[in-house]
Design brief:
Elements lengths: L11 H11 L5 E5 L10 H11 L12 H14 L1 H10 L6 H14 L5 H12 L2 E10 H7 L10 E4 L1 E4 L2 E6 L7 H11 L5 E4 L5 H6 L2 E6 L7 H9 L3 E3 L1
């Protein structure tokens, strides 16, 4: 089998590992992290910054300084990554879901950071029979809005979300929280099994990568000492650097 053109942009180890799995028979499940993997930077955090800057979050009131809120978010993430990301979603309590989805569509349309090689990978895997899902610690609404821009399906997203009170977001998180082991738990809850292929870029993806038949790691040339890269190399996990 000749190498598909959509694999050509990747490092030899990365593309060869995918090419080998493609040849295996049967349906396959591919799970991608989103922020830092399919695109550079963090789309979920970008939305949160925009919402707090515009004082658009009823749960926080109108008197909180945006910088104070952002620093609280960073402190919470530093203490517990999953709970910090969940708190950012809980801060959206009181928003109407239709309004939030409209804002997410606008941001996703204006987002300039999608990686063309990753878009090609998502589309290529889909074309050869993989069921592709995005599994993110960001809020699911913004990842759903961005999914079509990377060749994925908006409905194929597992992300942080809260229960709805009618048309309005509550502060009650839907479990499992899609970070660390919660990513694996959400995948197993949805599919009854772990992924054939998983792609991630941070420690929040570690358990998902460990659970996959083929773990693939995305890194950056300017962040060669990133924690996940230091764990991936000795394990022999294929790495591609942008």
């Amino acid at each position: 089998m000749s190498l598909p053109t959509w694999l050509e942009p990747f490092s030899p180890a990365f593309r060869d590992a995918i090419a080998a799995q493609i040849e295996a028979p049967g349906p396959k499940l591919a799970c991608f992290d989103a922020d830092g993997t399919l695109w550079s930077e963090d789309l979920g955090e970008a939305l949160f910054r925009w919402l707090i800057a515009g004082q658009l979050l009823p749960a926080l009131g109108s008197s909180r300084d945006p910088f104070e809120v952002w620093h609280e978010y960073e402190a919470r993430v530093a203490k517990n990554r999953a709970e910090g990301y969940a708190w950012a979603v809980q801060c959206m309590a009181g928003l109407r879901e239709t309004e939030l989805r409209a804002w997410c569509r606008q941001l996703a349309y204006a987002w300039p950071n999608c990686r063309p090689a990753m878009v090609g990978l998502v589309k290529g895997l889909s074309a050869v029979g993989y069921e592709v899902w995005l599994v993110s610690a960001s809020n699911s609404w913004v990842i759903e809005a961005a999914a079509p821009f990377v060749g994925a399906i908006a409905e194929n997203v597992l992300g942080m979300r809260v229960e709805l009170d009618g048309p309005t977001l509550s502060d009650r998180m839907v479990l499992p929280l899609t970070c660390h082991q919660g990513k694996v738990d959400a995948i197993v809850q949805r599919f009854g099994r772990t992924p054939d292929l998983a792609v991630g870029d941070s420690l929040g993806d570690l358990e998902m990568l460990e659970a996959a038949k083929l773990p693939l790691v995305i890194g950056r040339h300017d962040k060669l000492k990133a924690e996940l890269l230091t764990l991936a190399a000795p394990r022999g996990w294929p790495i591609h650097l942008f």
